[in-house]
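Sample entry (165 residues):
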Amino acid sequence: MKLYQLRSKQALPITKQKAWEFLSDPKNLKVITPDHMGFTILSGADRPMFSGQIIQYKVSPFPGYTTKWVTEITHVEKGEYFVDEQRFGPYALWHHKHFIKEIEGGVQMEDIIDYKIPFGILGQIAHPILVKKQLRQIFEYREQKLIELFGTIERTPKEIHYKSF
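Predicted structure, serialized as tokens:
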């Protein structure tokens, strides 16, 4: 089974505190997820983020397929980073690190996601056709939504990179 990695960076002209307040509120995940995914938080988003927090979602990553997704916030360093890990859901592994750092004129947000696709060779075949394409669409939507909400730092381009191991 292959391990894949997605890295995304985006600069925003806001304070680190404002970035943290937005990103660490689980309810805002719905705001930055495309509507066609039918993303709904079922439980666990009623409190500020903390290590050990379990959040349950319903999501339709592909037409005709709806699943529950359960994540745990495993690490939180207030104002700096947090990590969510899938406990149940569509991936064989999902480990998502969210970093925020100050840069000139605002902040840089960096996401590093290590993930595995289930179903062995069939999952590897589906990755470039379905999964990678879907993740790219999600992060491109997220980029646009964050620009709508907060603006952008023009000189800093958005970056999305993929690797497989």
